[in-house]
Amino acid sequence: MTRPGERLPAAVDVVVIGAGVIGCAIAAEIAQTRLSVCVLEAAGDVAEGASKANAGITSSFYAPPPSLECDLLNESNGGWEELCGRLGVPYRRIGALTVAFDAEGVAGLDRLEKQVRAAGVAVERLTGEGARAQEPLLSDACIDALGYPDEGIIDPVRLTWAYAELAARNGATFHFRAPVVGFDAEDGQVTAVRTDRGVVGCRYVVNAAGVRSGELSALAGGEEFEMWARKGQYWILDRDFGERMSRIVLPVPTATTRGIEVAPTTNGSVLLGPDAEEGVEAEDRGTAATNLGRIFEETRRLIPSISLDRAIKTYAGSRPAAEEAVRLRFDEEVPNLIQAGNRSTGVSTSPAFGRRVLALLGERGESTRPREDRVTHLERTPRLLLEADPTERRERRIEEDTVICVCEQVTAAEISAAVSCAVPARSVEGVRKRCRATGGRCQGSVCMAGVILLTANAHGVAPGEVGMGPGTGSVGRG
Questions:
Q1: What global pTM score does this model have?
Q2: Does 96-149+228-317 carry CATH code 1.20.1250.20?
């Protein structure tokens, strides 16, 4: 990995723009071949955009056939256990329920069930009683439901980092705070990508820039399309409530939205949200009492026992919106520019995105065979929170017994791994992304000092130089 402040490479085979979940998944696939790849990211770390502004659900169904989104979901969904096992990403296939409360909702379920079955996705029709047998917290007002046994929950930020870490260990370089400002071209093809930190020559460019992808396509002379930010707000409820839930619960979707949902997380908490607000700036992460109040009321209709007494945090983030749901192809105007974007299911389709971009390069005659010496697994650092009985482990280092973050049971060993890996954390937020420290009910009030000290020691700086997040003066800024 390139450290902040180091020079960009003179040239690579492939430049990937954007270190979100799609960009990192693509880089992870390319880096396992003999093609050279670098990733350019405007922010200071991976997963600073939509990849950390989602509910962490791996959808088995989202769009009806025939559609590219449906195909990508089908290609990705069956492999989550194997992929997350290799990369050490928290994942559970817990299933989901879409529930109806009246005749209009039942009619919506009828239409939805036909689409799901046409997509070849596992689904079962349930009575209200049958749905409550799967999720006892579900409202008594539910009269009908669809059950999706193959829906799962995942840590989307950890997934994004894991893709990046795998890519870096296979030779990819990551360059943060390197916003793309232009392109060089010759004979209609991009020959170099310009950033405010330097220029990188290339033979191919992958545009995985999320909200900025329309702007960058235009800069490269490619297809013109509009991308805009759609902000979503969330509540996070504490683990003592979240661990009582056994399913993801959703309302009947409308023509424009999947709806505000109740989603357990892999660390035991519960997310309420998101809503969808148009006409905002991509950097707008403010929350509003009116939005949060509406989210609370809509989710309480699904699960009446939801109480804000258990709330530990609210937050907001933007995701890219566009008329075209999924964009995965060579550009029609610039032959060596690959457009790679997803409006709603970036996490859920990321495995297929990586493989399909690699296939596109193969269609151009590039050798995409995996190297024999490639890295395919990331080693695991033992995590107390995921162990049934940590005392049963006999051989372990003192760092594995030293708990820094009490709420999330994160040890010094986990934090040390987060700040010393190939794509390391350089801020408090960076540590939280990789191992959950500071992400629990106290939001870092107990463990912040320990996290800062370990981060500072790893990067050879004073504790006062460790920022809260990539945008607030994080360690090693270039």
A1: 0.95
A2: no
